Amino acid sequence: xxxxxxxxxxxxxxxxxxxxxxxxxxxxxxxxxxxxxxxxxxxxxxxxxxxxxxxxxxxxxxxxxxxxxxxxxxxxxxxxxxxxxxxxxxxxxxxxxxxxxxxxxxxxxxxxxxxxxxxxxxxxxxxxxxxxxxxxxxxxxxxxxxxxxxxxxxxxxxxxxx
Length: 162
Description:
Blueprint: H1 10-22, H2 27-39, H3 44-56, E1 71-75, E2 78-84, E3 91-98, E4 104-108, H4 124-134, H5 147-152, H6 156-161
Antiparallel strand pairs: 1-2, 2-3, 3-4
Helix pairs in contact: 1-3
């Protein structure tokens, strides 16, 4: 007589995946469990025992990241402008969208603020170089027309603020 093996439940797989990502790496166990999860051969009993084992393992310590500041950010070729909300004071991000007419504008990018890091922040020199390259103010994305502003990569109003 053969025993029937019950596959792991979705909740077990979800929790096990979370634990594998947040607990100290146990390389051999991690590889074996991920292989079984991907192939769909993980049973309830092994999932339960693995969860108990991983709950005893120490959590992975993640170094705190530097806080974001108002400014320009570049991630994978996309340009973001981080601004402070007038109402709440919280930071949020706007992504630069190039419009068909050759103009550009910053548009609210829901959730983008959580993907940006302090390392993605452009220096003023990098932002100005971007402005020179594309012909838009590196602060507000207005099209630059004055030759002095085009050469500087920043408009006169925004230049007076930074």
